[in-house]
Amino acid sequence: MTDIDYYELLECERTADGATLKSSYRKLAMKWHPDKNPGDADAEARFKAISEAYGCLSDPQKRAQYDQYGKAAFQNGGGGGQDFSGFSDIFESVFGEFMGGGRRQAGPRRGADLRYDLEISLDEAYHGKSEEIVIDVSTQCAPCGGSGATPGTSATTCKTCAGHGQVRAQQGFFVVERACPTCHGAGQVIADPCKTCHGAGRVDQEQRLEVNIPPGVDEGTRIRLSGKGEAGARGAPAGDLYIFLHVRRHTLFEREGATLFCRAPVSFTTAALGGEIEIPGLDGEMHVIKVPAGIQPAKQLRQRGAGMPVLNGRGHGDMVVQIDVETPTKLNARQKELLLQFRETETGEECPQSHGFFDKLGKMFG
Question: What domains, with CATH codes, occur in the chain?
Answer without folding.
Answer: 6-100 (1.10.287.110), 114-155+190-247 (2.60.260.20), 254-359 (2.60.260.20)
